Each structure stands twice: as structure tokens, then as C-alpha cells.
Q: What sequence folds into this?
């Protein structure tokens, strides 16, 4: 047998790489078509189907567009719905477990008032996946219709955990529903498990117009932990709103949830040694350039409220809301003036209810020596919350600089 010629060998050496290249190119072409079809499936399903007529995602997207009416255009609505059904069935032929196709068929059945068949299709879709938002919405409505609150909340949780955009739709609805006393306990139980969407829900809920009783009841039931930064932020919001509504006792109950009221401090941080976390149940201090109450260390005294008022500025340098029950009380404190200061500092306790009647009023010169005082006063019935203020009033063209107050203590009797 004659050996292959050198020319034939050279031809073979050229053909083999060419064949490999062409096969690779064909495979790459198919892959490119599939990739382009996948990328275009949601935004441009018509174009995606031109690249890949069997693209299930594109079939689903086009079917959904017909169902919600966004692709009807010049096509009669009945024809659009019929096309939606055909597309959904094509998708199921390609992929029998295709959840969006099942959901689209279910939505169609709902549109023709075939609730039993729609329920069967939605239940089939839900059995295959918990990640289809429209299916979860239907399941929520179905559970509500059957008065199954816990079941509805379970599907709220599914939707909020698996569909990021669901929060915009569902959280405001859930927040308003939580105002219903029959629903609130179930919501609280779910939130106590700290689902990922819990923080966003609490801000939405606290953003509603809520009565003081609702805020106090809900936040207390939730059992927030003041030692945790995230929980503390919600407590601060609730405390500020309750105090502003004249309900400081409800606000204090959230902070001291593990203590009896008789053990609560009557005035918080009167020695100015701690941070003011729960304003206005803690000190609300002025911090302007010309009017301020800043915590400073006074030689021989320790931490104290150092008062500044100048350039005609006057007003509260410190304010705290308290919840003294009706009865007799005393206030003890120390204060000291500063040379060069001119004017008055005043301590006031007023009732927050009604016209804000004064319960205690005391003034001293912003200059002068250190002194220790004890003042007696009474809180009448009907005065459930009080505002305690320290005010600076410089004399005309005068300045208050370095006058101080500290060791403020309320006592019963």
C-alpha cells in the first residue's frame, strides 16, 4: 500500500483545526442565542422569543403582560387573554413545574370568576415554590377570607423574605392591620421571632398616627430589649411620642418593664453622670452657641450642668419630663454662681395637662456663692405628667457663663 503523500497530510493538518473551530463556533452560537434570550426574557419577551421560541421565561413574561393588560395595545382584550392562556400552556408543555405559568393560568381563571380552578392552580404553584409574589398575595387573601390570621401572616413572612419589592406593598397594609386588636397578638408573636423585615415594619408602624395607649400596648407586648442598639432606637421613638402626648408614665413603663413603678427614679440622671438616652425622659439640653446647658466637671463638686447665656439669648437650657403621682414631694439640689455672670437661673416644674399650672418655681442669681437647697411642693390630681426645666435669663447686656446646678433629687413626702 502506498504511503499518504506529503500533500494529503498537509491538507488533513489544515482541515482538522478548521472542523474543530467550526464546531466550537456553532456551539458558541447556540450558547449566545440562549444567553441573549435569557437576558431579554423579562424586559423584551417578544425579542427573546425571536432568538429562542421555546424560552420559558419569555413565554411567562409575555403571558403575564397580557394578563395584566400591559400588552393588549391594539389587540382586543379577549384576544389578549386567549393569547396569555396559550403562552402559559406552551410554557407548561416545555416545563411542567413552571410556577409563573401556573400562576398566570390561575389569574386567568380568577378573571372569569372560576374561583375553584384558580385556587387549584394557585395551590399547585405554591406547592412548588414560596418565591412567587402574586401567588403569595393570593394565598394571603385566601387565608384572610377563611379568618386564618396566623396563616395569612405566615405568607406575609414568605413574601417579605423572598421578594425585596414586596415590602413597599405589604408593610403599610400590615402596619394598619396591626391596629386591629384581634390581629395584633399574632403580629407580635411573629415579630418576636425577629424576621429579617422586622426593623422596616417597626418604622412603618411607628410612622402611623397612633394613640398613646396603642404605642404603649404594642411596644410593651413586643418586649424590646433596651440593651440592644436596634431595639433602643424604637424605644426612643416610642418614648418621645408618649412623653409629648403627656403620658410619661407609659413611656417610663417601656424602659422599666421589669420593675414596679415604686422603684422607678422620680428624676433621671440628676447628678449628670450618665448619657441622656431617652429624651425627654432624660435631659434635653440646649446646645446653641449663645444658649447652652453642657455637662462639665466643677472643681470640688464633680459633674454638673454648666449654663451659658449671652447676646440676648434666654430660655430653657435643660428640660426633662417626669411622671410624679399626686402627693407631696421635695427637691434637693446644689448650685453655684460664677463671677462676671449677670442674671438669673430658674428651676420650674409645671403640669403638662390643662394650662400648665406651676407646681414649683425657684430662682437665684447667676453670680454668688455655692448653696444647697431643699424645696417642697405638691402634685395635684389630674396632673399625670410634669415638665421640669432649668432656665437662664441674663440681664440686659449681661452674660451668664459657668453658673452650675447638680445633684437634683426628687423625693416623696
A:
Amino acid at each position: 500500500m502506498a504511503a499518504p503523500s506529503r500533500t494529503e497530510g498537509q491538507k488533513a493538518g489544515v482541515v482538522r483545526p478548521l472542523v474543530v473551530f467550526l464546531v466550537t463556533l456553532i456551539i458558541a452560537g447556540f450558547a449566545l442565542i440562549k444567553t441573549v434570550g435569557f437576558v431579554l426574557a423579562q424586559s423584551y419577551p417578544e425579542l427573546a422569543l425571536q432568538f429562542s421560541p421555546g424560552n420559558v421565561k419569555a413565554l411567562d413574561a409575555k403571558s403575564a403582560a397580557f394578563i395584566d393588560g400591559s400588552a393588549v395595545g391594539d389587540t382586543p382584550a379577549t384576544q389578549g387573554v386567549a393569547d396569555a392562556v396559550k403562552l402559559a400552556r406552551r410554557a407548561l408543555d416545555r416545563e411542567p413545574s413552571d410556577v409563573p405559568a401556573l400562576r398566570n393560568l390561575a389569574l386567568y381563571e380568577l378573571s372569569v370568576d372560576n374561583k375553584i380552578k384558580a385556587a387549584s392552580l394557585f395551590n399547585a404553584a405554591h406547592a412548588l415554590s414560596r418565591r412567587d409574589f402574586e401567588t403569595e398575595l393570593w394565598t394571603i387573601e385566601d387565608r384572610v377570607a377563611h379568618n386564618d390570621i396566623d396563616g395569612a401572616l405566615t405568607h406575609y413572612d414568605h413574601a417579605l423574605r423572598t421578594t425585596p419589592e414586596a415590602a413597599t406593598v405589604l408593610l403599610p397594609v400590615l402596619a394598619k392591620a396591626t391596629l386591629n386588636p384581634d390581629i395584633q397578638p399574632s403580629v407580635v408573636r411573629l415579630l418576636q421571632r425577629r424576621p429579617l423585615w422586622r426593623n422596616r415594619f417597626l418604622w412603618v408602624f411607628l410612622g402611623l398616627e397612633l394613640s398613646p395607649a396603642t404605642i404603649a400596648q404594642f411596644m410593651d407586648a413586643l418586649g424590646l430589649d433596651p440593651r440592644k442598639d436596634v431595639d433602643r432606637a424604637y424605644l426612643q421613638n416610642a418614648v418621645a411620642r408618649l412623653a409629648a402626648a403627656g403620658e410619661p408614665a407609659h413611656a417610663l413603663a417601656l424602659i422599666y418593664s421589669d420593675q414596679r413603678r415604686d422603684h422607678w427614679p422620680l428624676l433621671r440622671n440628676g447628678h449628670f453622670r450618665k448619657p441622656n438616652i431617652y429624651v425627654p425622659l432624660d435631659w434635653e439640653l440646649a446646645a446653641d452657641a449663645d444658649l447652652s446647658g453642657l455637662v462639665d466637671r466643677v472643681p470640688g463638686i464633680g459633674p454638673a450642668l454648666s449654663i451659658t447665656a449671652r447676646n440676648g439669648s434666654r430660655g430653657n437650657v435643660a428640660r426633662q419630663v417626669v411622671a410624679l403621682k399626686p402627693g407631696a414631694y421635695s427637691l434637693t439640689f446644689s448650685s453655684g454662681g460664677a463671677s462676671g455672670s449677670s442674671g438669673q437661673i430658674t428651676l420650674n416644674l409645671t403640669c403638662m395637662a390643662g394650662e400648665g399650672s406651676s407646681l414649683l418655681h425657684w430662682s437665684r442669681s447667676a453670680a454668688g456663692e455655692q448653696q444647697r437647697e431643699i424645696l417642697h411642693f405638691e402634685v395635684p390630681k389630674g396632673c399625670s405628667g410634669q415638665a421640669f426645666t432649668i432656665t437662664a435669663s441674663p440681664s440686659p447686656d449681661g452674660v451668664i457663663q459657668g453658673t452650675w446646678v447638680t445633684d437634683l433629687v426628687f423625693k416623696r413626702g
